[in-house]
Specification:
With about 180 residues, this protein is α+β, with helices and mostly antiparallel strands. Among the domains are: about 40 residues, no CATH class; about 70 residues. It has 3 helices and 5 strands, in the order αβββββαα. Strands 3-4-5 form a 3-stranded antiparallel beta sheet, with no helix packed on it. A two-stranded antiparallel ribbon has the order 1-2. Helix 2 packs antiparallel against helix 3. The longest helix has about 35 residues.
């Protein structure tokens, strides 16, 4: 019986030591996973670890808009034409800046298609010049060309329309050319 007791005690000791070793290995090997976020001047991240897992919040461009706040207080004593008086003035200024350092004034420098303000002004000026040129061309064609072709039998009315359309088209092209010269586009 003593052999049986020593065998049970030996096997139990080996199992106990193995159990403690496995628990120690599991406890020391549990690590937070290594996640390499691309870092930059404006990036931020937040990691929350819990029993159910991990929650990771990463922003590559944080803050997207930079803010600056300034205040100014002035107390002045006026000495004008009619004498004294005092003025107390407080100013508060809050500006927003984009990442490249330009002040945000509420509008975009470029529109969604990448056109600058000058290009948009040229497009608007070109549209106005084309419109004015088309009206002038149609008027000239109606005064000169239409009376010449309206008397053609059977197709005079059709030829008069063609002359008016052709005059408007030529006037539109001429107006665009003149408008681009005058508007420096």
């Amino acid at each position: 019986m003593t052999f049986f007791k020593w065998t049970v005690l030996g096997v139990g000791s080996v199992v106990a030591i193995a159990h403690i070793g496995v628990l120690g290995h599991i406890i020391t090997s549990t690590k937070v996973p290594v996640i390499n976020f691309p870092g930059g001047d404006y990036s931020s991240y937040k990691i929350e670890a819990g029993k159910e897992g991990y929650i990771i919040e990463y922003k590559a461009n944080d803050p997207a808009v930079l803010e600056s706040q300034r205040s100014l207080s002035s107390d002045k004593t006026k000495k004008g034409f009619f004498g004294g008086g005092s003025e107390s003035r407080n100013e508060w200024r809050r500006d927003q800046y984009t990442m490249d350092g330009t002040r945000n004034i509420g509008g975009a420098v470029e529109d969604g298609e990448g056109k600058s303000v000058k290009e948009i002004e040229c497009i608007v000026a070109d549209a106005g010049a084309r419109s004015q040129g088309a009206m002038a061309g149609t008027s000239i064609a109606a005064g000169v060309g239409v009376p010449a072709v309206i008397g053609i039998p059977y197709v005079g009315w059709l030829a008069a329309g063609w002359v008016s359309l052709l005059g408007g088209q030529i006037g539109s092209e001429a107006g665009s050319t003149v408008g681009s010269i005058f508007n420096d586009c």
